[in-house]
Every structure is written in structure tokens, then in C-alpha cells.
């Protein structure tokens, strides 16, 4: 058994020579430490412990019999494990490994097993009749489970450390980036342009002075200091006062500011442009107001129609009984009324045709008027448009009144028809 263990360890030492990962190095280091601890135990202590534990070992192996395993060894081993409250799975999972470590201490004391390091043998081991290979197999299995548990714990610790290191590195990088950005902002310099790079598009307006500048501010300072032209606001105020005085026929106010040539004319031109723009906006506003008025009138007419229709429906509902009593007396006259109603419908159709013809004539007249009025002033055109709008609104009112009368007549006809049908039904019932 010792020879087999030596071969396994020699093979493991060969594989450890070229590790690929840090985790493998750590695992191998742990294994070496464990093996050294086992070898450090003295032979005398192991011999003393073996004497004390011979009885328990003989019970387990069947009282020796020259190292041969007893048939009842499996049952005895199962009783021992059941007394220790251990759950052995086929893969060794779900065991109480802390209790296993205590048991392993006893088994190590029972048998003197040495764990040599890097001890290679040329010849294979021979079968030893004095050793119990079955018990040694379980001992090795339990030791392997303990080592696997330790390995898993070390791996978890390594993962936690790696995560912490990554977080620390991220924080350090973030702090370094903030420090660098703050320093760059502090050390940032203003890039000023050279004289050759500046575009000098602003020229002095005074005669015999052709100096050029790159901005309006520098030009205004030049006018104020060299030519006594004052600030920009002072010049604008003075030009306004001069313009108002000339418009009202008053005297020009006295001033000590040397205005640049052509400054007053530029101000006048700008004021004229503003006046023209305000006139155009006012005209557009007037047109929009007229359109809004027409829309409001249409909406009001619609509301009036709806209110009248509601009133008529209410009147009809209140006066149904009166109509019924009257219709019983006027059964003979119903035919004559139907004829008259048909005539009225024809008249309405004729009226509608006439209105369409009138609209066409009005449209033609409006086109003729527009052609004749192109040469007239804008004020006359606006007045004519307003008149046309008023005329159209009056026509619309007339049309609405006609439509209301038609609705009333149609409702009356419907009520007449209903009463006639009711009377006919009553007569039929009486005859039956």
C-alpha cells in the first residue's frame, strides 16, 4: 500500500512541475503541507496509540487472522458510520466533514502510514497479506474529501479577493481621472489669436481715418476716445431726439458728441423699414379678425338652430294629445294636405335651384368687381371685402330661416302621417 501511495505522489509531483494557473499552485502547496504534517508525527507516538486502539481495530477487521478481512467487516463498518451519524453518498457529498476529521485522526493513529515526498520506485508494489486494503481505501477516500473541501474554501476566498482588488483598482482609476481632469482645468491656458489671424472687418467711418478693427467693441472705443463720438447708447439717444425734433418741426437739441457721417440717415432708413413692417402686420391682423368674426357668426347660427330644434321637439311632445284629437276630426282632409305638401316640396326644390343660380351670379359679379378694383387703393378694397362679407352673412341668415321652416313642415308631415296610421288602425280594430 505504501508503494502505491508513493507512485501516486510521484505522478502528482511530475504534474506539479508545470502549473498553468495560480489556483493549481496553491492546491499543490496545500497538499505538500498536509503531507509534511503527517510525516512529522513521531513513530513512538504512533506505536503508543496503536497499542491503545488494537481492540477497536481488531473488532473492525475481524480479530486479525493474519491480516485477512472478515466477512462481517462491511456490517461492522456500517455500524460505526451509523453511530457517527454520517451520510455517505456515492460521490461523498453531504457529509459532516468536521466529524470526519476527528475520525481520520484516530485512523491515522491506528496504522502507521508514511507519506514520502518525491520518492519514486522503479518496481511496482507487491501484495501484502498483513494490510487491509478495504479500510485503507475508505481512509484515503475520506482524506480526499477533506482536501476537496479545503480546496473549495480556498477558491472561494481567492474569488472574493479578486473581486475586492478589481473594485479597489476601479476606484483608484476613477480618483486618478478626477485628479487629472481638475489639474488640467487649473492649468488650462487661454489661446489668444495673433494679429495676423484676426479678421479686421470693422472700419472707422470718419474721414481721413481708415483704421480697421476685429470687433465692434474695439471700434466703439476708438470712436469714443479719438473722435469724441461717445458710446453707442449715447449716439442712439441723440439721433432719436434729432429725428423727433425734425419730424415735429422743433429745434435740434444741442450736443457735444461728434456723430459719424451718415449715421442720421441710416437711423431714418431703419425707422422707415420698421413702420412698413408694422403696417403689414396690422393689415394681416385685420384680415384674421374678419375671418374670426365670420366663424363666430357661423357657430352662433348653428347654436340657434339646435336650440330651436329642441324647443320644437318639446312643443311637439307637449301637444301630442291635441294633435291626436284634431287628426281624428280631419281624416277626410288628409289626402288634400298630402297634395299640398307635395307642392310645397317642389317649391322648395325650385327655391334651392334659384339660390344656386343666385350664388353663381354673385360669384361672377364678385370676379368682375375684383378685376375692376385692381387699380384702386388698398383701403377701398378692404371696405368692399367687408361689405361682401356682410352681404354673405345676410344671405346665410335667410337660408337658415328657410331651412328652419322646412324642418318644421317636415315634422308636421310626419306627425300627420303617424296620426293617419293610428286612426286607420283603430278603424280596422273596430270593424273586426
TrEMBL record:
InterPro entries: Znf_C2H2_type. Residues 329-347, 374-388 have a biased composition (Low complexity). Residues 280-296 have a biased composition (Polar residues). Residues 348-360, 393-402 have a biased composition (Basic and acidic residues). GO terms for molecular function: zinc ion binding. Residues 202-232 form the C2H2-type domain. Residues 144-178 form a coiled coil. Residues 1-20, 41-63, 280-302, 329-432 are annotated as: Disordered. Gene3D superfamilies: Classic Zinc Finger. The keyword Metal-binding applies. Keywords: Coiled coil, Metal-binding, Zinc, Zinc-finger. The keyword Coiled coil applies. This is C2H2-type domain-containing protein. It comes from Pseudocohnilembus persalinus (Ciliate). The lineage of its organism: Eukaryota, Sar, Alveolata, Ciliophora, Intramacronucleata.
Amino acid at each position: 500500500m505504501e508503494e502505491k501511495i508513493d507512485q501516486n505522489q510521484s505522478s502528482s509531483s511530475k504534474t506539479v512541475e508545470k502549473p498553468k494557473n495560480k489556483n493549481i499552485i496553491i492546491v499543490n502547496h496545500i497538499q505538500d503541507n498536509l503531507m509534511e504534517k503527517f510525516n512529522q508525527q513521531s513513530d513512538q507516538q504512533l506505536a503508543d496509540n496503536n497499542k491503545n486502539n488494537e481492540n477497536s481495530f481488531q473488532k473492525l477487521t475481524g480479530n486479525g487472522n493474519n491480516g485477512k478481512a472478515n466477512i462481517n467487516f462491511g456490517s461492522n463498518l456500517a455500524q460505526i458510520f451509523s453511530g457517527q451519524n454520517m451520510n455517505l453518498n456515492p460521490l461523498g457529498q453531504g457529509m459532516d466533514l468536521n466529524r470526519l476529521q476527528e475520525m481520520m485522526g484516530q485512523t491515522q493513529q491506528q496504522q502507521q502510514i508514511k507519506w514520502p515526498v518525491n520518492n519514486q520506485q522503479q518496481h511496482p508494489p507487491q501484495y501484502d497479506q498483513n494490510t487491509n486494503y478495504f479500510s485503507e481505501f475508505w481512509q484515503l477516500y475520506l482524506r480526499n474529501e477533506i482536501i476537496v473541501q479545503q480546496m473549495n474554501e480556498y477558491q472561494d476566498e481567492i474569488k472574493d479577493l479578486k473581486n475586492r482588488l478589481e473594485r479597489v483598482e476601479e476606484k483608484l482609476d476613477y480618483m486618478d481621472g478626477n485628479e487629472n481632469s481638475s489639474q488640467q482645468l487649473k492649468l488650462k491656458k487661454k489661446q489668444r489669436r495673433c494679429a495676423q489671424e484676426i479678421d479686421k472687418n470693422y472700419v472707422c467711418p470718419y474721414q481721413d481715418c481708415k483704421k480697421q478693427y476685429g470687433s465692434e467693441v474695439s471700434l466703439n472705443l476708438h470712436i469714443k476716445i479719438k473722435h469724441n463720438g461717445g458710446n453707442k447708447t449715447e449716439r442712439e439717444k441723440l439721433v432719436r431726439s434729432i429725428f423727433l425734433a425734425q419730424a415735429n418741426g422743433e429745434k435740434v437739441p444741442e450736443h457735444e458728441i461728434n456723430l459719424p457721417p451718415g449715421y442720421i440717415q441710416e437711423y431714418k432708413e431703419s425707422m422707415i423699414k420698421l413702420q412698413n413692417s408694422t403696417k403689414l402686420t396690422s393689415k394681416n391682423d385685420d384680415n384674421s379678425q374678419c375671418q374670426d368674426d365670420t366663424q363666430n357668426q357661423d357657430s352662433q347660427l348653428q347654436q340657434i338652430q339646435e336650440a330651436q330644434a329642441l324647443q320644437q321637439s318639446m312643443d311637439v311632445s307637449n301637444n301630442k294629445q291635441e294633435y291626436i284629437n284634431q287628426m281624428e276630426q280631419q281624416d277626410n282632409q288628409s289626402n288634400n294636405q298630402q297634395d299640398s305638401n307635395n307642392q310645397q316640396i317642389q317649391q322648395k326644390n325650385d327655391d334651392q335651384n334659384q339660390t344656386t343660380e343666385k350664388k353663381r351670379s354673385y360669384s361672377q359679379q364678385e370676379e368682375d368687381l375684383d378685376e375692376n378694383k385692381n387699380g384702386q387703393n388698398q383701403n377701398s378694397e378692404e371696405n368692399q371685402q367687408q361689405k361682401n362679407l356682410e352681404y354673405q352673412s345676410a344671405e346665410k341668415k335667410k337660408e337658415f330661416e328657410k331651412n328652419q321652416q322646412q324642418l318644421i313642415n317636415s315634422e308636421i308631415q310626419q306627425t300627420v302621417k303617424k296620426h293617419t296610421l293610428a286612426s286607420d288602425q283603430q278603424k280596422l280594430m273596430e270593424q273586426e
